[in-house]
Amino acid sequence: MKIAIPEYNERVSPVFDTSQRLLVFQMRNRGLPTLLGSEDWCYLPVVARANRLRQMRIDVLLCGGISGWLARQIEALGIRLMPWVAGNVEQVLDAFVAGRLPDRRFAMPGSWGRGHGWRFRRRGAP
To answer: Helix H segments across 28-108?
Structure first.
């Protein structure tokens, strides 16, 4: 499984649509994630981001805020989306691997408990 996380200063970037760097992890032996690399997204147009994730064969995207239309594009490509995540990338990744997301500690301010906010979304899910 490949996991992508937009990163800014070692934290999950607050807005996926404007993120400038993407980290890509691969689940390895014993379920431990390994950093495959990073990609500079400074010049990648927002409209091309969903297709780039597909080209990279990303299975899961953990991110902060994301526009509704981009979230729908990503989900339509079969990529699992967990939006409204905040915190240190390493800690968020560890929590995801351990099955501890969603968790209030990693929710963006104002996103917990709102009908439109914090939830693990899969293709075809409400």
So the answer is: 49-55, 68-76, 89-97
Q: Provide the pLDDT for residue 116.
A: 40
Nearest by Cα to 38 from 29, 47, 52, 25: 25
The answer to whether residues 6 and 83 touch, using CB atoms and an 8 Å cutoff, is no
Enter the tokens of residue 23: 């980290």
Quick one: pLDDT at residue 112?
Answer: 54
**From the candidate CATH numbers 3.30.380.10, 3.40.1110.10, 3.40.50.1820, 3.30.420.130, the one assigned to the domain spanning 2-106:** 3.30.420.130
- Which residues lie closer than 8 Å to 5 by C-beta, 6 or more apart? 12, 22, 23, 25, 61, 62, 63, 89, 92, 93
Coil, helix or strand for 67?
A: coil
Cβ neighbours of residue 62 closer than 8 Å, sequence gap 6 or more: 3, 4, 5, 12, 82, 85, 92, 93, 96, 101
pTM: 0.85
